[in-house]
Amino acid sequence: MYPDTNSITDDNPHCVETLMEFPSDLILFLRRVERVSALTGAGVSQESGLRTFRDTQSGLWAQYRPEDLATPDAFERDPKLVWDWYAFRREAVKAVRPNLGHYSLTEMEKKFPEFTLITQNVDGLHQLAGTKNVLELHGNILRVRCAVCGRFTETWGSDLDSVPRCDECDGLLRPDVVWFGESLPRLELESAVTASRRAQVFFSIGTSGVVHPAAALALAARENGSVVIEINAEPTPLTPRADFVFHGKSGEILPALVKAVWDISIQV
Ligand code: OAD
Q1: Of all atoms in ligand 1, which is nearest to the CA of residue 209?
Q2: C-beta of 102 in contact with ligand 1 (< 6 A)
Q3: Whose CA is nearest to atom 23 of ligand 1?
Q4: Which of 87, 138, 217, 220 is the most buried (most CB within 10 A)?
Q5: Does the beta carbon of 116 sit less than 6 angstroms from any atom of ligand 1?
Q6: H-run or E-run covering 237
Q7: What single DSSP character describes residue 138?
Q8: Is residue 138 flagged as an active site residue?
Q9: For the residues 227-240, what does the mean pLDDT come to?
Q10: Cα separation, 226 vs 196, whole angstroms
């Protein structure tokens, strides 16, 4: 395990404010570590141009109420409002590209013998950047399925006045995302828990770490002896419990880390 872990207390993670500065023992450790997991959140896609949820000014939840748009009750009450909101976000996702942070994680996947990318993001940008082993905990906004029979569909009518319906059972179509109050996909969650427990290094990147069960993965990793590294624009509830904290943009810190560890320059 990482040589200095025992000397790191809960109140005193290695907190690095300067982007290009990485402790040399961390660099050496990352060169030889075998099992790595990374949990990502909306912050990773922020530099691609997608809005986060909880940033005070620009976050989606600063403008909209999740209970009006992201719950099964909201869909039952006003399916058109919910469908339109996700259709609007789907178009935003289709219009953007992965950023240097996504591509850095793709490179990291090639370097570690075992690498699991666990994401709360529904935008598919990790896969678009080429990362292969991605667990989508909250679904994918680009997929659509029937709210009744669950059948997936890639095409639906373009009538703007009503929510499209399933060809098979006439149920309403909905985005294949996890809403508040719904269970996470079982296999993805189980695999994420296993990967977190197995990880020698666990990265928490661009997530506020307040939505469970995803938020508990870093702690599960830590309990099993993993070195926890947080990369975030701001402190989060995980910050005091992380072994290393890098404050700044993931699209800048991750390429700098890949450069420092493997001397590889990430380009879009
Ligand atoms: P949040 O909006 O809660 O948190 C985004 C985090 O990214 C914040 O801590 C920001 O400080 C940080 N951040 C912003 N820009 C960044 C950047 N360029 N580089 C690094 N960090 C940056 O988003 P999530 O944690 O993903 O769930 O939210 C978790 C879940 O809550 C989402 O999956 C969604 C939401 O409600 C559902 O819809 C079910």
Answers
A1: 25
A2: no
A3: 42
A4: 217
A5: no
A6: none
A7: T
A8: yes
A9: 97
A10: 8
